[in-house]
Amino acid sequence: MKNIFFALIIIGQFTYAQNKIAKDTIKTEQQLDEVIVTANRGVTKRSEIPVSVSKLTAKTISETKPTAVYEIINKTSGVLMVNLGNEQHAMAVRQPISYSSYFLYLEDGLPIRPLGVFNHNALLEINQFSLNSIEVVKGPVSSIYGPEAIGGTINFITQNPTLEPTFKIGLQADQFGYKRMQVAGGATVGKVGFYVSGLTSDQKNSWMAASDYDKNNINLRLDYAITPRTKLITTFMQGKYYSQTSGSINEETFYSRNYSSTTDFTYRSSDAMRTRLTLEHKWNDKSESFVTVFHRNNKLGQNPSYGIRWTTGQTTAKGEINSNNFKSYGVLAQHSQKFDFLNSNLIIGGLFDRSPNDYYSNQINLKANLNLGGQSVNTYENLGENGVKLADYNAIIKNTAGYLQYSFNVIDKLKFTLGTRFDQMDLSYTNNVGIVASGEKKYSQLTSEIGLNFNLNKNIGFYGNVAQGFAPPGLTSIFRKKPNTGTTTVSAEFYYNLEPAKFNNCEVGGFLNLLQNKLTFDYAVYYLQGKNELLNIRQPDNSTDYQSAGETQHKGIEFGVNYRPIQELHFRIGGTTAKHKFIDFKVSDKTTDPVQRLDGFEMPQAPKWVGNSEVSYYPKWLPNFRTAIEWQYVSSYYQDQINTVKDSGYNFFNARIGYAYKGIEFYTNILNLTDKLYAYSVTKGNNASDKATYTASAPRTFMMGIQYNFDLKK
Q1: What is the DSSP string of 209-233?
Q2: Is residue 392 part of a domain?
Q3: CATH number at residue 89
Q4: So what family is this one in (predicted)?
């Protein structure tokens, strides 16, 4: 990796036209009619898309200088990406804070993971220095993207080759042992353009015990213009990540700010590679096609702290070591055709994805060293594997899909969009737990969407849609052994009864441009209902059993305001108010449990208000200087499922300052400006004796950085 960085530095006859980009982006930032590519895998004006979509521009990314992706994503109204430490994360988009497969993560329009192998930490693989923009689509877009595109779809769009030679290199570090080096460069020579970006980061002896980590990423894009209408695009990404996982802490440790860890042996390790080859052809001004072949190779291993099982008072416990690995080979093709009739547009496409997937989970024995009184654990010790296989399977996932979308104008200002997609997941497997058994399983689903846009003029517009979404059960659930079944009963080894979770969404929204685009306002009102969601039901013997029978309800309002009274000053206000509720949700068949059903309860970790706002200042009297204050707000939410204990939520401030002088940019990000004590997540079991656990936030952090943007022409 370091050799690559030195090679890139040699390319240094390049420029990063930062000031021009910043000035151009300020103008486009005020336009709600900006171009979006995620909604239908093609260039579309935002005012013609019948969904709620937000775009984080290159300027926003550059000025934020994020250490982790959540620092950018949380600037989107209606989105809360929860920091779990060292770039690990959970997500909340039209859902409570969730680890479920209800979010689709894309890199340049392709899913980061195959169907059935969702991981809520997938975005730790993203190279922050490679990003050109990020698009966030809220609500189901399954009619184009298929499974898991339910709560939200986030597309990380990497940098295209630059027309002029460009180069940039930067360093950043904080007072808690984190440091990162990053470098990027690109150019276009004749018919060939390229862009390369990489980073290497390292953290040692941070504020939280047992939280060291390191990450190395590189992204490459190569474009070849075969003809003025035909282009060949190649991209390559490789990333390696390793982190200790200190886990959550108890209440006493949290409030004392004694950020100790009960484990020094837990970890998460990721080795990811993705590559694609795309052939684009523009037949004429009304017709274009592309074909993409892609490959993924991913290894995710861990000794997770969340896998530890301990009974109060016991001096022993159990844990696990697991590894989830896959390779993908696939092809995606799409054709777009415009017609004069009703000013219509037809999109037709198909996908085939073949992903062999191997997984194992082995149980380990732990020694629990108890605190005084024996009611909590001071530290765990890893005693090694005990020979028990919790899971061990080999599977081949085949996802075959076809989709079609047709949009047309009934009148000049009224546009309808109709979309449908059919997905089939074919699963062949060999289960190695107990008697080795092989078999097949199929999941299929048709999803549809109806939407409309009514744009009264360029300053006032409305949209509405009715859409469906679904998520098949993850393979780690399907291959979990049913409780109270023998290893010799092949049919009892798998959860064949699990069905895809299905969602129906209805929403309306719109935008307003006022004061000659100095003031913009956009909003969305949604109602989302889920059925066949996965239930984990306690049995009379304390084991748990899966069922696809849960039903939930999600409704809310999202809004965003941008106001630039003068060119030097920019106000951004964004937020959402929502309610997430259990409708039909069973949690126990055990008669002694105080709660068997959760019908009517609010879902835990579901704040009613989430907001992120910012004021930025670009003084004329000091060109190339910027400063911003950002406010993050999360209201109170229930810690437990039965709504007995609430966490107070949190709000905090971040400050960012930067100054560029002759190609050198100096910046400081002060995260948690007032050094506030808060937790990103607080959870508690339903029993009165259960104790809350806290995912603590970092103390006030000073991130210092320098970046050099070299311009040969100057």
Answers
A1: TT--EEEEEEEEEEEEEEETTEEEE
A2: no
A3: 2.40.170.20
A4: Belongs to the TonB-dependent receptor family.
